[in-house]
Structure formats: C-alpha cells, structure tokens
C-alpha cells in the first residue's frame, strides 16, 4: 500500500507554496489583520483562477472534482502562511454543505458560483451557549405558512461579513439531534453582522443577527433531520482545519530550527545545546504525528468509511494540542524576540489558539472519541 502523495498532489503542493510565497507574504497577512474585510479581491480572484475555490466541487457544477486529500495539500500550505480570507469558510463550510445535502436545484444554483469565487458562503452554527453538540442549537425556526420564520443570533461565524449565503442550523422541533434543520439564508435580507475582536485577527469571526422569512426551497436536506448532515460537514471541516494546523506547526518548527542554528549564546549556536535539541525533536514528533492523524482522517472522510467520524475527532483532538504546544515551544526557542509584535511567531500561536477551539477543543473531541469507542468497541480494530 502506498501511503505517499501522488506526483500530481506533490505538484499541487509545489504550485500552492510558490503562489502563496508571492501572494501571501507576512506583510500581506499583517495588512489584512487591520482590514475590515480581511482579504483582497485581487488575491481572491487569483485563487479562483487557479481553481482552488472549486477544487473539490464536482465537475458537473463547475469545479475541478478533486478529493479531500488533494484539498488538504493546499490547506497545509495555507496554514504555513496563516492565510487570511474566507477560503475555509466558503470552500469547506459552504461548498461541502451544499455538495453533501443540497438538492439538484440548490447545487445548480449555488455551486457554480462558489466554484468560481463569485459568491462566498459560510456556516453559522455556534450560539450563546458555545456548545458544539445538538443541544447547543436553540436558534428559533417557526412555521410561517409554507415556510419558516428564522429569528436569533449566531456567534463566531467565519467571515459572515463577507458572505452572500449562510448555512444556518435551527431548531424546528423537539430537542437534541432530532429537530434540527439546516437553512440556506441570503445575507441581503434580514441579516446583520458585526466583526468580533478576537485573539486571531488573521481569521475574521462575526456575530450574526437574523430575522427573516424563508420558503421551503431554503431547506438544506430534510426538515428535522439536519443534524446528521451537519455532523458529516463538521467531520470534513475538522479534517480541513487539521490540515491548516499541520502546515502552521511545520512552519513554526522550520523557523525554530533555522533560528537555533544562527542564534548564539556563550559563543555557540543555541542549537548545539541539548535542551534546545530535545525541544525541537519533541516538536518534530508532534508535527509528524499530527500529519499522520490528519492524512488518515482525510482518507477516511473522503471514502466515507465507518470510522470516518472517529478519525476526524481523533485528528482534531491531537492537532489542537499539538499546534498550540509547538507554537508555544517555538516562541520559547526564539526567546525575547519571539514575544515581540514585530516577529511572526505570535501570529502562529494566535492561529493555533483560534483553531484549537473551533469545532471543539481537544477535550471535547476526546469525549466524542470515547463515546464512539464505548458505543462501538470494534471501531478500535485496524481497518482492512
């Protein structure tokens, strides 16, 4: 069995790294941190022209029709440069949601525009409770004639201020997983957004207030059966986020090793000291382990194998801790300069902290792993 990437995937990685080196230097990242939108139209159009915004959209709907493993190659490179902008929100959260649960009419209406980068979509899941489970969905969706009236607030929504379309989980009946419905909401009607001041300003998060009426055509999937679809979407999103985290952690490791070779104390490079060597070795183990967990989860999710949910939660649990710890160690290795605003290390640490809590931190995802194992002990068996 070949566990490596194909030649085509390595070419995709090389082209992504070359493009981002030119189009997303740290000067651009810092500029976008202070920009209300958080990205430039020029860069977005260039990525769309490369086919990235439609990379995993089926060819029938204007995309490249590639798979999740191909996507994580690009996402790793984006993580290396802490790329700002709505790519994760629109291509992963929006595009995958429509591909997984959209009707033929919904796919035909939205996916070509998402693939071309003409519209931006995102997922509005989290509410005031901050919970990632079905019990956290209390957003009201009341029957209104043949449609629904949506009214409530969502928090920490990725790039909602840039979005043309929201995927909104709402409570249509009952409690728990049964009774959640997903709606497609046009942001031009009854939607207001406010950009939140968060630790990681390279990724814009918003508070979204919704008060609008939608018809039956806005329902994504089935009424009261939206949690299963949302669960599948979140598994994909976790894997995508893990790929970003792996790329960021790898870059922190590279920067730390490079610095350890040139920074001298007592007349020697600090990389010659055993304490620094061991710290770098520990960082490398964490980075490589995170990649292994992510690559397997990407394969599992792409092939919809029975252990896909388990693999996604395991990867998110490990990568959440690994990226934060590697970024913290990177700052320690850089010493005093690593704590300064002018140095880039804090950008990686802040992205690590932001990614850590998105779709549940390590503790939350370990709990999900435990639930799967207790319900299905056979899931621990080696595949195949």
Describe the protein.
The chain has helices at 7-23, 26-33, 41-49, 68-80, 87-101, 104-116, 226-262, 274-302, 308-334, 345-357, 362-375; strands spanning 121-123, 140-144, 147-158, 165-171, 180-186, 191-195, 205-214, 219-220, 264-265, 268-269. It is globular and about 80 Å long. 47% of the residues are buried. The longest helix has 37 residues, at 226-262. The N and C termini lie close together (12 Å). The chain is 51% helix and 14% strand. It has three domains: 7-119, Orthogonal Bundle (Butyryl-Coa Dehydrogenase, subunit A, domain 1); 122-224, Butyryl-CoA Dehydrogenase, subunit A, domain 2 (Beta Barrel), CATH 2.40.110.10; 227-380, Butyryl-CoA Dehydrogenase, subunit A, domain 3, CATH 1.20.140. It contains eleven helices and ten strands. A four-stranded mixed β-sheet has the order 1-4-5-8. It has a four-stranded antiparallel β-sheet with strand order 2-3-7-6, with no helix packed on it. It is of the alpha+beta class and 384 residues long. Helix 5 packs antiparallel against helix 6, helix 5 (87-101) packs antiparallel against helix 7 and helix 7 packs antiparallel against helix 10.
The chain-level mean pLDDT equals: 94
Q: Give the number of DSSP strands.
A: 10
Along the chain, the helix and strand elements come as: HHHHHHEEEEEEEEHEEHHHH
- Radius of gyration based on Cα positions: 21 Å
How many DSSP H or I helices?
Answer: 11
* Percent of residues in helices: 40-55%
The CATH class of the largest domain is: Mainly Alpha
Using the alpha-carbon principal axes, give the shape.
Answer: globular
Low-confidence stretches: none
Q: What's the CATH H-level superfamily name of the largest domain?
A: Butyryl-CoA Dehydrogenase, subunit A, domain 3
The helix-and-strand class reads alpha+beta
């Amino acid at each position: 069995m070949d566990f490596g990437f194909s030649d085509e995937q390595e070419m995709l990685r090389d082209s992504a790294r070359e493009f981002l080196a030119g189009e997303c230097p740290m000067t651009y990242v810092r500029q976008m941190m202070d920009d209300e939108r958080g990205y430039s139209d020029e860069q977005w159009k260039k990525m769309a022209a490369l086919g990235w915004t439609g990379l995993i959209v089926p060819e029938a709907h204007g995309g490249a029709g590639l798979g999740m493993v191909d996507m994580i190659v690009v996402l790793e490179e984006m993580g290396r440069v802490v790329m700002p902008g709505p790519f994760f929100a629109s291509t992963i959260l929006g595009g995958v949601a429509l591909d997984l649960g959209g009707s033929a009419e919904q796919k035909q209406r939205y996916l070509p525009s998402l693939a071309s980068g003409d519209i931006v979509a995102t997922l509005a899941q989290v509410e005031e409770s901050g919970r990632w489970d079905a019990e956290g969905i209390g957003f009201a969706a009341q029957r209104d004639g043949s449609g629904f009236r949506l009214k409530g607030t969502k928090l920490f929504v990725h790039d909602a201020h840039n979005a043309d379309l929201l995927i909104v989980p709402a409570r249509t009946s009952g409690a728990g997983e049964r009774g959640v419905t997903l709606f497609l909401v046009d942001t031009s009607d009854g939607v207001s957004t406010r950009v939140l001041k968060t630790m990681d300003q390279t990724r814009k998060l918003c508070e979204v207030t919704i008060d609008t009426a939608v018809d039956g055509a806005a329902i994504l999937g089935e009424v009261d059966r939206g949690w299963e679809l949302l669960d599948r979407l979140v598994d994909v999103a976790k894997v995508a986020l893990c790929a970003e985290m792996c790329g960021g952690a790898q870059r922190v490791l590279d920067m730390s090793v490079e610095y350890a070779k040139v920074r001298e104390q007592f007349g020697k490079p600090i990389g010659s000291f055993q304490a620094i060597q061991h710290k770098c070795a520990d960082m490398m183990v964490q980075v490589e382990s995170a990649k292994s967990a992510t690559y397997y989860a990407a394969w599992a999710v792409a092939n919809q194998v029975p252990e896909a949910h388990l693999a996604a939660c395991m990867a998110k649990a490990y990568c959440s801790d690994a990226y934060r710890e590697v970024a913290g160690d990177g700052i320690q290795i850089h010493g005093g300069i690593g704590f300064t605003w002018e140095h880039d290390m804090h950008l990686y640490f802040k992205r690590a902290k932001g990614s850590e809590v998105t779709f549940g931190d390590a503790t939350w995802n370990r709990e999900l792993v435990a639930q799967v194992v207790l319900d299905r002990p056979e899931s621990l068996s080696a595949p195949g």
